[in-house]
Amino acid sequence: MTSLSSPPGDLAPPPEMRDTPLNWIKNNLFTPWYNGLITVVIALILGYFFYTFLTWSFTEAKWDVIPRNIQLFNVGRYPRSQYWRLWVLLGLICTLSGLSWGAIARNVAKLYSRNILIGIGCAVVVCLLFPVPLPNRLLLVGMTGLVVGFSWVGQQAGRKNPKFGIWVSSTWLLLFFIALWLIGGGLFLRPVSSNEWQGLMLTVLTAVVSIVICFPLGVLLALGRRSPLPIFKGLSIAYIELVRGVPLITLLFMGQVMIPLFLPDGMRPDRVIRAIVGLTLFSAAYLAENVRGGLQAVPRGQAEAASALGLSTPLVVILIVLPQALKAVIPAIVGQFISLFQDTTLLAIVGLVELLGISNSVLANPQFLGRFSEVYLYNGLLFWVFCYAMSASSRWVEKKVNTEH
Amino acid sequence: MTSQQPSTMSDQSANTSPEAVIVAKDVHKWYASNKFHVLRGVSLTVNKGEVVVVMGPSGSGKSTFIRTFNALEDYQKGTITIDGIELSHDLKNIDAIRREVGMVFQQFNLFPHLSVLQNVTLAPIWVRRKKKAEAEAIAMQLLEKVGILEQAKKFPGQLSGGQQQRVAIARALAMQPKIMLFDEPTSALDPEMVREVLDTMRSLAKEGMTMVCVTHEVGFAREVADRVVLMADGLLVEEATPKEFFNNPQHERSKQFLSQIL
C-alpha cells in the first residue's frame, strides 16, 4: 500500500537485476538438464570446427598468397606509375568522410568518446597489419588520421555554419566526378583504359555507381506504378515485371554481348558502363517494389491533410509521402544495396576483372595453384566488411530518423 | 418554417446576407466504385462568421459533404462556390480554394516525421512562400494560442491525442484560412481530452471564424452553433437554430436521431 500512496515524484526505481556471470550461465544454459545437454553438444561441435579452422589456418594455410598479390587484389593491373591518383582519391574520400562525420555529430559534446577512440585504435592496427609494403601501411594510417582530423574540422564548421551539411553533401556529388576523372584520366592526366580498372577498386566503383543511380530510378518507378496516369503506370509495371522476370546474369550477358551487336562500332559504350547499366536497371526494378511497399504503408490521411493545406501534388509526394515511405523501408532498401554489392561478383563471369575475377586469375597462376581457401576467405572477409558497414549504417540511419517514442 | 424545404431555407439566408462564403447547390455524388448515391442533392449556404454544425447518423454523407468543400471528394452534379470561386476540376482553382479553407480531421493526420513546429510552418513556407523566420513566429503565436507552445520541438508521436488535435488546428490556422472545416475532430479522442479541443474551437468561433463542424458534441452545438443541420441518407433533412433543433425538432428523422443521442 505504501507504494500506492507515495506521490508520483518519488516513484520506486526498478529493482536491481544484477546477476553474476556464473549464475547467468547456470540459469540460461544449464537449466533444466536437457538445456545443459544441448549446450554441451553444440559447444563440442562449434569447438571442433573452430579448432580445425585454427589448426588449418596456422599450419596448412599458406597465407603468403595474399600479401604477394595484394596490389592485384586491390587495383588489378592498374598502371603502377598512376597509383598516386588512387591515393589522392582515397585521401579525398577520407577527408570528406571526416567532414561529414563531424557535420553530422556537430551537436555531440564529446566527438571522440571512449568507444570512438577504441574504434580509431582498431582502425590504426588494421592499417598497420594490412599486408601492403610498409610505406603504404603508414599512408593508410595517414588516411585514418585524415578522417579523424577532418571530423574535428567538420564539427567546428558545422557549428558555425548551419549550411555546412548541404555543402558537404554537394561536395560528395562533385567527388563522384572527380573520382571518375582520377581513375580514368583525360584532361591533363594520362588516360587509363577501363580494361585496366580492376580488383577491389572496380568492385567498389561499380557497386557505388549502381547504387547511386538505381536509387532515384527505383523511386521514380515506384511512383510511376502508383500514378493515376495510365501511360506512366503501364510503362512502370511493364518495366518492373519484365526485369524481375529475367536473371541478372542474363541482363549482364545481354549488356556485354548483345548490345555491341546492335550498335555500330563507334557507338559501343564502354564495358564497365555496360556492366553498371545492367546492374542498375536490374536493381532499380527490385528497389521500386520495395519503395512501393513503403508508399502503401503511408496512410491516405497524410496526403489528404497535405493537399488540404494547399500543397500541390508534387510537393505532397516529396515533402510528406516519400520521406515516410522511405523511412518505413530502410532495411529493405539497404538489403537491396547489399545484394547489389554482392552481385558485382557476377561481372567476373562476363569477363570483367573485379575482385573475384582477379582472384581467379591469381589462382590460375601456377605459383599459387590450389590456394582456393585462402583467396576465397580473403574475398569473403572483404565482402563481409563492406556489407556489415552498410547494414550498420542502415541501423544508425533508422535510429536517427525514428521520431516515434 | 416547417413547410419549407431545406434548400429554399438556405437560399433565403443567402439573400439576407450578401457575404455567403460557402454556397452549395444541389450537390450529388456517386461513389465511383459501387455507384452508391451518397449525396442526393444537398444545398447549404454558410455566411461569413457563421458556425454551422452538421449532425446525423453515420453513413449519412455528412463527412463526404464537407469534404467536397475543399475538393477532397469530387461530386458529379450541382455547384459549390467557396468565397466567390466556383469549384471546378481546374487544379489551380482547387489549390486556390484549399489555401482559403482549413481542415481538421478525425485522425489528426499530423505529419509524424516533422516536429510540431515544422508541421505548422510547412504550408506557410511552401505554399504562401513565407520566410522561415516569419512562418515560425506566426506558428509560435498559434501554438501559444492553442496552449502547446512548450511542445513545439517535439514530434507528434510524443503528444497526447488532444494535444495532437490542437496542433492540427494550429497547422490549419497557420494558412490564415477564411473558413475552417472540422470533420469529427473529437471522435478519436479519449473523453478527458475532448474538452481541451472543444475549448480551442469555441475560442476560434468567438473570434469570428467561419466554421463548418461535423460533430456529435451536443453541448458544443447548443452553445456555439448559429445553425444546426441534420443530414440523413444523403439528404439535408433539417436546418434550424440549435434551440429549435434540440427543443422542437420538426422532422420525423430529426426526432428519431435526437432520441438516440440525447
UniProtKB/TrEMBL annotation, chain A:
User: Gene3D superfamilies, from UniProt?
Assistant: MetI-like (1.10.3720.10)
Q: Does the keyword Hydrolase apply?
A: no
Highest taxon of the lineage: Bacteria
PROSITE patterns membership: ABC_TM1
Where is the ABC transmembrane type-1 domain positioned along the sequence?
200-394
Q: Which UniProt keywords apply?
A: Cell membrane, Membrane, Transmembrane, Transmembrane helix, Transport
Topology of the protein relative to the lipid bilayer: Multi-pass membrane protein
Instruction: Spell out where the chain crosses the membrane.
Output: 33-54, 84-104, 116-132, 138-154, 166-188, 200-223, 235-259, 271-288, 308-326, 346-364, 376-397
- Annotated localization: Cell membrane
Q: Please classify the protein's predominant subcellular localization into one broad category.
A: membrane
Q: Which family does it belong to?
A: Belongs to the binding-protein-dependent transport system permease family.
The name this protein goes by in its record = Amino acid ABC transporter permease
List the source organism: Spirulina subsalsa FACHB-351
Record lineage: Bacteria, Bacillati, Cyanobacteriota, Cyanophyceae, Spirulinales
